[in-house]
Amino acid sequence: MAGAAAERGQQRARSAAVRLLLPFLCAALLAFLLASVAFEITHGSHISFGAATNGSGSGAAAGRRGGGSQQQQQQQQGHGGADVSVVQRTMQTRVCGSPAVDGYAHVKPECLEASPTNKWWQEAKPKPDDLDIHIERHADYDGLAVAWGIGNTKKSVEECAEACRQHVPKGDSGPFSRMPCNAFAFCSEETCFEPDAHSHSKGDCWLKFTEAPASPEVNMRGRLSKAMQLRHPAAPVTVQWHSGVVLPRGVQLTNGSWSPRHDW
After folding, report:
1. Is residue 84 part of a domain?
2. Cβ distance 157 to 245 under 8 Å?
3. Which residue ranges have biased composition labelled Gly residues (predicted)?
4. What is the number of structural domains in the chain?
């Protein structure tokens, strides 16, 4: 009897010891698993999926084992080996204000020429293949004309976009003619509504310069607001323009913000 009681006492003691040690064992196992996952992420396989655009098409890219994919390296470096995050910030920096805030009366070409956006273009001197085209249908992006749109007829928004990417500043045809083209607007209907004094016809292709093209100022987008339709009863329900920007390779287009023209 005494021996059986002693055995039961030892079993209870062992059970109590296991209950005490179990939380510590679980914590140690969890720490080991987390460390293993961290090691695999750091030293194991890297797989990424993305789209690489060349202005007219797209493709998928998958990574390789080791230091990341060629696609990732290109996105990190951008044109000319520059850090794309630096170029991204440059392409979202606006220092001269909104051109349309007072009907373009205050716009100073010298400020735009000294802007971070224009300085990047002048210093990097990108070739067309170094630039990506981004198109948004049924939208109108603001900007200052480097090539007048009325009579500058193109067959499609893609052709208009390519004209922007290929544009070479001439410097003798207006206050902004020395600027690169990094934005465009294409009239897609027989006539296109715009709250200005001009008449716009199908195929009109406006080539523009804008600060911060990765964060464009948007005049109209999608369905016109009720306020604009009340101000302009003859306006269509949906924007008739297709617009876009030309950006250094690897720079991402953001949603932008409304321009003052949105309230005209």
Report:
1. yes
2. no
3. 56-69
4. 1
